[in-house]
Amino acid sequence: MVPENILNAYQASVEKYKKDEVIFEENDNAHHYFQIHQGQVKMNNYNENGKEFIQGIFYAGDSFGEPPLFADIKYPAAAVALEDSLIYKLSKPKLINLLEEQPKVHFHITERLSKRLFYKSLMASEISSEEPEHRIVSLLHFLKKHVHHLKDHEEFEVDLKRQQIADLTGLRVETVIRACKNLEKKNKIRIIKRKIFF
């Protein structure tokens, strides 16, 4: 998102996080901008019954946790490394200075945040009203277009486990497994050696 040479120029540090290490907790105050140099991060929280809901999964080049930073509110979810990761960390005052001095970067961050808001709105609608197969296909369409930047006719390997798909769509993993088998029968996805292709 923010070019690494610019992050370095504004004195961002690079922090190491081990797999499953917490980067920040739900309800922590937001004081830093985070951007992944290497690895994967999920933002998640749990309902009263202990079911995990994944708010998002972020990859190398992605930033995460900005809305609370800009809105001066607490994090609504935790951030956890899904694998060993290297993450840029920039203090809020330095980020504000960067945005004031780098309008193209400012615009790019605004654009990315708008896409995330679109995804949240889409998934909120899907989770509240749509059938499991439809929810899964909507998620896969979003990943194809907005994460992998592919056209409709291009196929990609879905790099999510069944449990992660369940946590992103508000479904049980057993429901995801059944729905994926049905989608395969309808030729909407391909499953090869347990990997989903869409």
TrEMBL record:
The cross-references to SMART domains, in alphabetical order and at most eight, read:
cNMP
Any one Pfam family match given in the protein's UniProt record, by short name: HTH_Crp_2
Give the CC-aspect GO terms. Answer: cytosol
Q: Which UniProt keywords apply?
A: DNA-binding, Kinase, Transcription, Transcription regulation, Transferase
UniProt domain Cyclic nucleotide-binding: residue ranges: 17-116
Q: Does the keyword DNA-binding apply?
A: yes
Sequence ranges assigned to domain HTH crp-type in this UniProt record? 130-198
In the UniProt record, does the keyword tRNA-binding occur? no
| Gene Ontology MF terms | DNA binding; DNA-binding transcription factor activity; kinase activity
Q: What name does UniProt use for this protein?
A: cAMP-binding domain of CRP or a regulatory subunit of cAMP-dependent protein kinases
Lineage, top ranks:
Bacteria, Pseudomonadati, Bacteroidota, Flavobacteriia, Flavobacteriales
